[in-house]
Task: structure prediction
Amino acid sequence: MTEATGRVALVTGASSGIGAATARLLAARGMRVVVNYLRSAPAAEEVVAGIEAAGGRAMAAQADVRGATAVERMVRQVEAAWGGIDVLVHNALTPYVIKPFHDMTWEELGGKLDDEMRAAFTVTKAVLPAMTEQGWGRIIYLGTGLSRRPREGMIALGTAKAALAQFARYLAQELGPRGITVNVVEPGPVADTRMANALDEELVRRQVAATPLGRLAHPGDVAQVVAFYADEDNAFMTGTTAAVNGGMAMY
Result:
């Protein structure tokens, strides 16, 4: 991959897990990275400090990505410091319930759908003007294998992420003529994340046993694929979905 020569990347939900790993990797490859967070200011500042200690450039930026005013304020903050955002990695995970459909209310299912799409809509709208003006941009959404392969109790998350994946394909079609690519990264189970902490040991054992590569993903495994999509050299892939699951599911 080529060095990113100072491109500006916004990574939402970057204070921990996949987002933090992605922020560190993009910074190591030469991008200036905005570490977005909702409530975890100390954790976000720790990610920034680690990037800077390694010779990279980063800033922390607080915003609830579901709120247009907060996102616009964050983007103005970035523009004042570094100019427009070249790369959007939308990783922030909005809350969801884990329960069967039988026990679920519309507020729980519809609320997750609304949060998921509202956040993607809001951050994408905010970064598009600068990308369009320069005729170059990279948008990467973090999905989940649950959007294709159901698992008990995960209907809210899986359905919302399936909607996000289709949203990305429509955007890829519309934004391609502007020089902007749009792709989705769909991890399977990832160790050292909030989602992984919700899994019991027996389920983890079964998942590892069903994975040809013999382990769960690490955040860094997912970050590598995101970084590929964000790279200057990746100029002719758009509307695609990358499954990062060690072969647990093959599409």
Notes: The chain is about 45% helix and 15% strand. The chain has one domain: 8-244. The chain has a mean pLDDT of 94. Residues 8-244 form a domain with the Rossmann fold fold (CATH 3.40.50.720).
